[in-house]
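dude i think i finally got it to work??
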Amino acid sequence: MPAYAAFYKKLRLVFKKPVMTSRGPLYHKETFFLCLADRTNPARLGLGECGPLPGLSLDDRADFEAKIAQVSDLLNAGYSHTEIDLAEFPALAFGLELAQLDWQGGGRQLLFDTEFSRGRQLIPTHGLIWMSDRAGMLQQVRAKVALGFTCIKLKVGALDFREECGLLADIRRTYPPGRIKLRLDANGAFTPGNALARLNEMTRFDIDAIEQPLKPGQWAEMAVLSRRSPIPIALDEELIGVTNPTEKELLLKTIKPAYIVLKPSLVGGFAAAKEWIDAAQQLGIGWWTNSMLESNVGLSAICQWVSALETTITHGLGTGQLYANNIHSPIRLAKAGLIYDRNRSWDLSGIVKNYD
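look at this
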């Protein structure tokens, strides 16, 4: 019998206001927590977040909760986490990895001993602008800049292209390149027939990078676009479901993007994400990480992992402010980045109450 009892809890995270995505509006997000409770010391609890995103995650499927229950049973039966095949369940693999790391660290949500977890490092993050009409998005930009953000990320492809160019022109009239960086995310909204022309048109707005201009799976077309685009291309959804290290290397060698965007919940956890980083660095490809609307549990873990890798690039981890019922934690937004405030404490009562 293992030293811990494994179980899971479900939590519905509620958005303060609906957020628009390329897959429609989101009002709430269900997430699960895989818990490893010490059989003799209830204060020691390893916690890992497993939260597939509807319409995007490989494991956004009807049997996801049943799979978590199965994994809990296997752990209680004495199976090691390395003996459980979760290739088709990357969000669950991420949660299991977090729970194991937290358990090993004493159940304090301190997975990595880094400058961030010691409260001495800020993880810079971009300000995410949610889909809306032109006026609404411009208002969001102004609010983010007022908070101190110097890198802004906008979703494109939902409005008429001319309207989006008008929005970018509005932004640049007020905030020149020396004031803020602009990142775009097309979520595959462009086509091989119009992508290059659109990217050429957007060059005048001094764009730092654009994520996933084409739908994933079009390696040849994306390779041509990556080679000819005047704006650096970052792969995002393209990485979903690519789990074999050889295939990861082949994808990167074929497309040769400027960047890859890593979401640990989407690619199967930190170890899987590190495989992507290693392969990318061998080819001179940069990277950053984005959240996948995790609670503060997942965000804290990702920030600690990023800090352990000693990266200074701006990431996309500022989504914790979106929820009305997020888990109270030491993480807070400050100076357009996230810090771990050692004067604040975790409150996990909403997750672990009555677990015995």
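The chain has two domains: 4-109, 123-340.
im so relieved honestly
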